[in-house]
Each structure stands twice: as structure tokens, then as C-alpha cells.
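Give me C-alpha cells for this 171-residue protein.
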Amino acid sequence: MLLRHDSFARLCDARRMLGEISEQPLSIAEIACAARISPFHFIRQFEALFGLTPHQFRIQSRLDQAKVLLAKGEHSITEVCMEVGMSSLGSFSDLFARRIGSTPSEYQRRARVMVQIPGILPHALFPGCFSMMGCLPVDAFRNFREASSGQVAVESSHANQAHQPDGRRSG
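Here you go.
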């Protein structure tokens, strides 16, 4: 899908509007009007660009905000529900459990346990790639030029030869 710069900017503004949590959230038709697109065309373009329909994006934004508020531990679950624009605690809890994989109270309890020590980020919050990097040997972080030149392969074959149990060099 090719978009002109101004169309892309209007869709990004629409995404920002959808992510805002207010007392009276704008309807999809109002946001489409602000983006100067028909509601049907807006929904299609939004989904093609961002991978979610505007409604799905709004729900995901609310759940993301709820996760932050629950992790801070400063609000009750009912307060979080109302703060993110949901009107029914039961619907909020059910939706949260289905999408996040745990109830809001379980999530809040886990988040409190993980952030007890100020200034230290718990391992459960690290992306997997960073966790894996901590387990790799130092020589795994060579730059791309050394790795692609074959120098690494030559060095490792010499290292293997030097560490033969009987002292013989292989190869």
C-alpha cells in the first residue's frame, strides 16, 4: 500500500487520537473525519498500515496503559478499570485475562514482586535477546567485518588445535 506523506501523517495522528484515554472518547467516524477519510476507508487503511483495526488498537492501548498502572501499584483494580476508560470491572477483568494471560490482580501481584528493589530491573522484564546476550562469551560480540572476513574461523581452528588432549595438532 502506497501512501502519500500527508495521508501517512493523518493516519499517525488518528492513531494518537485512538490511544488517548478520555472521558468521552472520539468515535471511529469522528477520527476518520479528522483524518479526512471515509470511516470504511479509514478502517481499511489503518489496519493495512498498523496491523490492527482502530477498535483493536484502542483496546490494546487501554490494556497497555492498564498494565502500567497495575505495575505501579498505586491504584486499585477498579480505579485502573475506570482510568483506562472501561466502564465494567467484569468486562475489563475478563478482557485483560484473555489478552494478557492473567487476571489484573495476578498481574499486579507479580509486578509488585518484580519491582521491589529500586533501580534494578528484574530479568523477567528484559527482552529475550538481552537475556541471551548475558550468557554469550565475550568473543561472540565481534564486529561484522571480522566475522565475514573468515578471520574468526581461522582463529577458532588454531585454538582447537592448541587444546588437543595429547598435545598433537590436528588438521
